[in-house]
Design brief:
Structural class of chain B: mainly beta
Strand content of chain B: 35-45%
Mean pLDDT of chain A: 96
Order of helices and strands of chain B: EEHEEE
Strand content of chain A: 15-25%
Number of strands of chain B: 5
Helix content of chain A: 40-55%
Helix content of chain B: 10-25%
Largest sheet of chain B: 5 strands, mixed
Low-confidence stretches of chain B: none
Oligomer: heterodimer
Chain lengths: ~260, ~60
């Protein structure tokens, strides 16, 4: 699976926020098998060291980082944050978020397309957090995005795949663009469902970080992603409205009156 | 000279962004910076002169989703 020319072995991408401790974060990442983890950047005073120790931890894990522009509500904010992230994390990859609504954290897709174009033109490899809207997806591809990351449901909501039809349509319209369901997953079956639709990967955070046992849940998601992918490759049967007996009827003993 | 570091008013000697960061305890740290909303890359900090009232943003790696 190639994302911007980088071969990724794992189809599970994991966020690094909200874990009970750095030790649990470390073990959860290992249990998930994730090769890409999302990170962010926040203000730090001259006397603080939290950011420096977090960076040391991430580097020790040997995973690729995908910085985000979480919390940005304007194109200018997102573009400036992306520039800071590129320097800070020494990567051209950026998970581009331009938030349009504070309650649902729904992307501002108009600002998203504009920011994606600016950043792509400036050499960034943009992974946009978007909706499942086909036309927006087309605009993002035109803007230079070579990976799309539609939401399953609002960030942190654990609602799973809110619009399976829309996600399936997106997959059908963009057979050659890597697609990642990003956000809204709550349990491993949600991740398996996304993979069964033919999505290339899933990105999640809260479902693992806020589970009672984050390390156990990371392992469960890894298994679900693997199972869902294997199911997709095995070509699932089509659903039917009526029953079809699985046991052959021919040759059944005639025992009625 | 008074600047605003991550919204906090701080008094620093007149000079460059690089010098201000050093005096404020950021020496050798993994950070990224902006002045008045514009990104300032690390190599440009020594040549970036600060003026009274400038708003400096200093960010570091952080957990994210």
């Amino acid at each position: 699976m190639l994302f911007y020319g980088v071969d990724l072995s794992s189809r599970l991408m994991l966020g690094t926020a909200r874990y009970p401790s750095p030790a649990v974060l470390t073990e959860a990442i290992k249990a998930s098998g994730a090769g890409v983890v999302t990170v962010s950047l926040r203000r730090e005073s001259g006397s603080e060291r939290a950011g420096q120790s977090f960076w040391s931890l991430v580097r020790s894990l040997g995973v690729r980082v995908l910085p985000n522009t979480a919390g940005c509500h304007s194109v200018k904010e997102a573009v400036t944050t992306a520039h800071m992230a590129r320097e800070l994390f020494d990567t051209t990859w950026i998970k581009l978020e331009v938030i349009g609504d504070s309650d649902t954290l729904q992307p501002d897709v108009f600002g998203l397309v504009e920011a994606a174009r600016i950043l792509s033109d400036d050499g960034f490899d943009v992974l946009p957090y978007t909706t499942e809207d086909l036309v927006v997806a087309e605009r993002l591809v035109e803007a230079g995005c070579r990976v799309l990351m539609p939401w399953g449901a609002p960030i942190g909501s654990a609602r799973g795949l809110n619009n399976v039809y829309g996600l399936r349509s997106l997959r059908a319209h963009f057979p050659d663009i890597p697609l990642v369901v990003d956000a809204g997953l709550g349990v491993p079956s949600h991740a398996a469902a996304a993979m069964e639709l033919g999505y290339d990967a899933v990105l999640l955070n809260t479902a693992v970080a806020e589970a009672g046992d984050p390390v156990g849940m990371a392992r469960a998601f890894a298994l679900a992603v693997e199972a869902g992918r294997a199911a997709f490759l095995a070509r699932p049967m089509e659903p039917r409205d009526m029953a079809v007996p699985s046991t052959p009827v021919i040759g059944k003993a005639a025992l009625g009156d | 000279m008074r600047i605003f570091l991550n919204d906090d008013a701080r008094d620093v000697e007149p000079g460059t962004l690089a010098a201000a960061l050093e005096s404020l305890g950021y020496g050798g740290r993994k950070i990224a910076t902006a002045v008045n909303g514009r990104f300032v890359a690390a190599p440009a900090r020594p040549a970036t002169k600060l003026t009274d009232g400038d708003r400096i943003e200093v960010v570091a790696p952080m957990q994210g989703g």
